[in-house]
Amino acid sequence: MIRLNLPTFEIKLSGTQEHPRIYDILRRRYIALTPEEWVRQHFVHFLTGHKGYPTALMANEISLSIGNKKLRADSVLYDRQMQPRMIIEYKAPHIEITQKVFDQIAAYNLLLHVDYLVVSNGLQHYCCRMDYENHKYEFLREIPDYDEIPP
C-alpha cells in the first residue's frame, strides 16, 4: 500500500496475499484491506493516538437514509451524550478530493448537523467547522485535538 501523509501505527494484518484484511480498532474485527480502508485505519489511529479522540466515541460505517436513498458515513465522532459532532469521509489515495466529495459529506450533514466535516484521501486532509448561526463554514488549518472541540 502507498505511504500516506499520516503517522504510522502498528498495523495488524491477516488474510492472504490475494485477500488481505486489516484490523479495525473501532469495529474490533478484521476488514477487507482496500485503498480506502488503508486511509481510514491510518486516520482513525491518527485521531485516537495523536489527537486524543476516544475510540468509545467513534464509529465506522454509519448507515443513514434520505427518503429511499441509503447512505453510509465513513466515520462519525460523537460527544458524551452520543450526539454526532464530526463526520469524516475517506477516499483512496488516488482519488482526488473535489467538490463532489464535499457535496457527498454535506448530504450526510443534512441528517446529522455536526460541527465538523473532515475529508481525507490520506495525502490531503480538509476540516471545516460549521457555523449554523451565521450560515457559513470555516476551513481549519489542521484537524483539532479532541480537547479543542467545544462540548
Account of the 3D structure:
By secondary structure, the protein is of the alpha+beta class. It has helices spanning 35-50, 99-112; strands spanning 13-15, 20-24, 29-32, 58-66, 69-78, 84-90, 116-120, 125-131, 136-139. The protein has a 6-stranded mixed β-sheet with strand order 4-5-6-7-8-9, sandwiched between helices. The longest helix has 16 residues, at 35-50. 26% of the residues are buried. It starts with 12 loop residues before the first strand and ends in a 12-residue tail after the last strand. Helices cover 20% and strands 36% of the residues.
For the structure shown, list the relevant keywords.
151 residues; alpha+beta; tt1808, chain A; 3-stranded antiparallel sheet; 2 helices; globular
Draw up the topology in text.
Blueprint: E1 13-15, E2 20-24, E3 29-32, H1 35-50, E4 58-66, E5 69-78, E6 84-90, H2 99-112, E7 116-120, E8 125-131, E9 136-139
Parallel strand pairs: 6-7
Antiparallel strand pairs: 1-2, 2-3, 4-5, 5-6, 7-8, 8-9
CATH architecture grouping = Alpha-Beta Complex
Mean pLDDT, all residues = 94
Radius of gyration over C-alpha positions, nearest whole angstrom: 15 Å
CATH C-level: Alpha Beta
- Which range does the strand content fall in? 35-45%
* Widest β-sheet, arrangement of strands: 4-5-6-7-8-9
Number of H/I helices: 2
Query: In sequence order, what are the helices and strands, one letter per element?
Result: EEEHEEEHEEE
Q: Indicate the overall shape.
A: globular
Q: Cα distance, first to last residue?
A: 37 Å
User: What's the CATH topology name?
Assistant: tt1808, chain A
Q: In terms of per-residue confidence, which ranges show pLDDT below 50 for 5 or more consecutive residues?
A: none
Our count of domains comes out at: 1
* Alpha-beta content class: alpha+beta
Number of strands: 9
Helix content: 10-25%
Largest sheet: number of strands, sense, barrel closure: 6 strands, mixed
